Amino acid sequence: MTFAEILAEKGAEAGLSFTPLQLEQFSRYYELLVETNKVMNLTAITEPEDVAVKHMVDSLLAYETEMAGKTLADVGTGAGFPGVPLKIYCPELKVTLIDSLGKRLRFLQQVIEELGLKDLTIAATSLGEAHDPIAEYIEQGKVVGIQTSGIRGRMGQVVSEGKLKTPAIIRSHGGRPRAIEAGEVHIDIAFVAAPTSDCVGNCRGIGGKSNCGSMGYAMMDAKCADHVVVVTDCLVDFPNMPASIEAIDVDAVVEVESIGNPKKIASAAARISQNPRDLMMAENVARIIASTPYFKEGFSFQTGVGGPSLAANLFLEKVMDERGIKMGWSIGGICGPMVELLKKGKVGKIIDVQDFDLDAVNSINQTPNHFEMSASQYANPANKGAMVNKLDFVVLAALEIDTGFNVNVLTGSDGVLRGAPGGHPDAAAGSKCCIIVTPLVRGRMATVCEHVVTVTTPGDCVDVLVTDYGIAVNPQRPDLIECLDAAGIPHVPIEALQKKAYSLVGTPDDLEWEDQVVAVLEARDGTILDVVRKIKPLKL
Fold first, then answer.
1. Which residue has the higher pLDDT, 78 or 435?
2. CA distance 519 to 493
3. How far apart are CA 462 and CA 439, in angstroms?
4. Domain limits of the chain?
5. Which of 123, 130, 291, 425 could form a disulfide with 147 if both were Cys (CB 3.0 to 4.6 A apart)?
6. How much is the average pLDDT of 237-248?
7. Rounded Cα gap, residues 415 and 453, in angstroms
């Protein structure tokens, strides 16, 4: 008898019946199990009848009709029992397989691929080059949906090519927790990589070999997901306090050899640009800030991690010293230059949702006035206490900015997804003064243009543009124009900067789009801000 015939017979004895497709899937699963078991210790049970009864049928005895549409987390799944048999028998059941050994997970990955298990949706904070392997699952139709704050690398390429079954949904760092809390994003299971955890799931971003600092972006996932699995490479004694994510929100803890490469989790230090043009722009940023009425004792500030943005910290410190004032608090993704201001007593508090370098990671571990916060606390527009709404200044970068002051930080000039809104639209909308700092051109591409490829931050949230060829103020802010004039800071209409950019690199050709929408960009409040369409192939 074949394995399918044996399973059909033993299943009938237990009151189970199988479709031809299910018998085919169970048979292939058995073949893979026996074949792989020759080189890997997966199971001591390999005889067809024993596997049929003790692995397949026994797993299916846990089946209940109410499982359809529900979520199952199979912790310590080993060779996939009972999770894989239950998924084969009930395709509508959402199953997550969890195991501490990478070789077992690689075997299960092969099982999933060959059995054609599919229709997965990924709802990650951001997707980059580390997630390139998922691109293959998109092309195979196994991953059919993506909800995230950014897409880069191979993932961005395949989505831009229209290979994802449904349009990707892109949200800002504030829009994502808003959607989770509102139930617009339902997370069946959240995997949280934690540098340290105790046995029940109290976990922190510090204290292990893979420290990341703040775990702010994972907090809402852990709070709202149906199931939460903490994955750590450093189990510590109970209680691991104060916890970034508390055990009351955690269902399982899995210890693995490594959660990542510590050298790539955070850079040694975010370097301030030494490029003379970047330094000139940074100095102008500080001059503009100092010219406004918001620059006073206790002002609040956020900056990005680009070269000119970081350099602005140096010049800002200088004008703070000249005026005899201190910064009250700073927020956002934090790195070394802001930590240095804290150490010098130039800033009162840092409230941190993400750390970009080891200086920041060490600071949140050691410095009393360096605090951790969730993404919801940081930027959720439905949260009345959102920190971005109390910002005086934010200094941000741009891939493109157009004559309407609309900013694009998501798609390249070729229309391909290669960036992330992140907290850009949140901080721009919440701050009293939003300054974009960017070179006028990059290579042979104009940064200041007539129309951005994709609007990620609306122009009515952007106040000042600083380039290496001049400064422009949004006409909607006559008060800031008066401030710059009073301080003797020259500025020009943004149209003049756009024309200068085109004179340097030429007028860009218009992109040609197909009708297919590959991504939908949501505004902070959940309304549709823009869409990304599939780019037409270039004809030579």
1. 435
2. 33
3. 16
4. 1-116, 118-166, 276-509
5. 123
6. 96
7. 6
Q: Residue 538 has which token pair?
A: 């270039």
Which of the four pLDDT bands, split at 50, 70 and 90, describes residue 267? low
Residues contacting 317, CB < 8 A, separation 6+: 341, 344, 346
Mean confidence (pLDDT) of the chain: 90
Whether residue 242 is predicted with pLDDT greater than 80 in this model: the reply is: yes
Question: Average pLDDT for residues 23-50, to the nearest whole number?
Answer: 90
C-alpha 134/C-alpha 127 separation (Å) is 10
Write the burial class of residue 486 (CB in 10 Å: 0-12 exposed, 13-18 middle, 19+ buried): exposed
DSSP for residue 509: P
Q: Tell the burial category of 41 from Cβ atoms under 10 Å away from its Cβ (0-12, 13-18, 19+).
A: exposed
Please calculate the CA angle 147-153-157 and round it to the nearest 5 degrees. Answer: 75
DSSP state of 523: P
pLDDT of residue 99: 66
Residue with tokens 């007028």: 507
For residue 94, give both structure tokens: 């959402």
- Edge-first strand order for the sheet with 528-535 is 120-122, 143-148, 168-170, 513-522, 528-535
Question: What CA–CA distances, in Å, run from 59 to 66, 86, 99, 292, 513?
Answer: 16, 7, 17, 68, 50
Strand 470-473 vs strand 143-148: parallel, antiparallel, or unpaired? unpaired
Task: Give the contacts of 158 (CB within 8 A, at least 6 positions apart).
Answer: 135, 138, 139, 164
What are 239's two structure tokens? 């209680």
Indicate if the alpha-carbon torsion angle 328, 431, 312, 475 is positive or negative: negative
Place of tokens 């956002």: 332
pLDDT single digits (tens) 401-431: 999 999 999 998 889 999 999 999 999 999 9
Cβ atoms of 96 and 189 within 8 Å: the answer is yes
Rounded-to-integer distance, Cα 208 and Cα 194, Å: 9
DSSP annotation of 57: I
Q: Which of the four pLDDT bands, split at 50, 70 and 90, describes residue 101? A: low
**The tokens of 505 are what?**
């690199």
- Class of residue 452 by CB neighbours under 10 A (exposed 0-12, middle 13-18, buried 19+): buried
CB 444 within 8 A of CB 473: no
Which CATH number describes the domain made up of 276-509? 3.40.1080.10
Percent of all residues in the chain with a pLDDT value above 70, rounded to a whole number: 96
- The rounded distance, in Å, linking the Cα atoms of 179 and 373 is 18
Least confident of 55-64, 262-271, 374-383, 494-503: 262-271
SS3 460: helix
Q: Does domain 1-116 have CATH number 3.40.50.720?
A: no
**Cα 143 vs. chain centroid, distance in angstroms?**
17
**DSSP-derived secondary structure letter, 53:** I
**H-state helical runs in 414-459:** 424-430
Residue 115 has pLDDT above 90, yes or no: no
Task: Calculate ∠ Cα 489-495-501, nearest 5°.
Answer: 95
pLDDT of residue 273: 65
Predicted local confidence at residue 270, as pLDDT? 58
The whole-number average pLDDT for the span 271-297 is: 91
